[in-house]
Amino acid sequence: MHLQESGEMYLETILILSGQKGLVRSIDVCDHMGFSKPSVSRAIHLLEDGGYLTVDGKGYLRLTASGFDTAKKIYERHQVLTAFLRHLGVNEPIATDDACKMEHDISDETFEALKAHVAKLEILK
Predict the structure, then answer these.
(1) How many CB atoms lie within 10 A of CB 109?
(2) What is the pLDDT of residues 7-27, one digit of tens each?
């Protein structure tokens, strides 16, 4: 199953919330993303069916190995792109928003080149 941008955003959000809270439920995703419960529930079921996460009996979301790898990839792209845009002088809110849009469409080759450049600049927090 190929994930669309929205699926990647859900996985990234679950990864971030897991780091902050430990255990994550759908309601946490709703609150963080500002989406309705039915929208999040549908997305969670699609991600679960795709093998990207599991939901336990208490409603806690857990990323599978595939889900974790995808979320980690998107989050790394977000961090690198945000740092690079900030280095160019883009203010934080715009850099964050633009990085969020770019992280889903940039090719692996271009991202790896950009990541190497950012590493040389030593600008990643």
Answers:
(1) 8
(2) 999 999 999 999 999 999 999
How far is Cα 114 from Cα 95, in angstroms, rounded to an integer?
15
Domains of the chain: 5-69 (1.10.10.10), 75-121 (1.10.60.10)
Nearest 5°: the CA angle 23, 32, 118 is 95
Query: What span, in angstroms and rounded, lies between the C-alpha atoms of 76 and 82?
Result: 10
Count the residues in the chain. Answer: 125
- Give the residue carrying structure tokens 């030593």: 122
Q: Are 28 and 15 in contact (CB under 8 A)?
A: no
Closest by CA position to 72, among listed 18, 1, 31, 2: 18
State the residue for tokens 């979320």.
71
Contacts of 70 (CB under 8 A, 6+ apart): 3, 8, 11, 52
Q: Quick check: pTM over 0.85?
A: yes
Give the DSSP letter of residue 32.
H
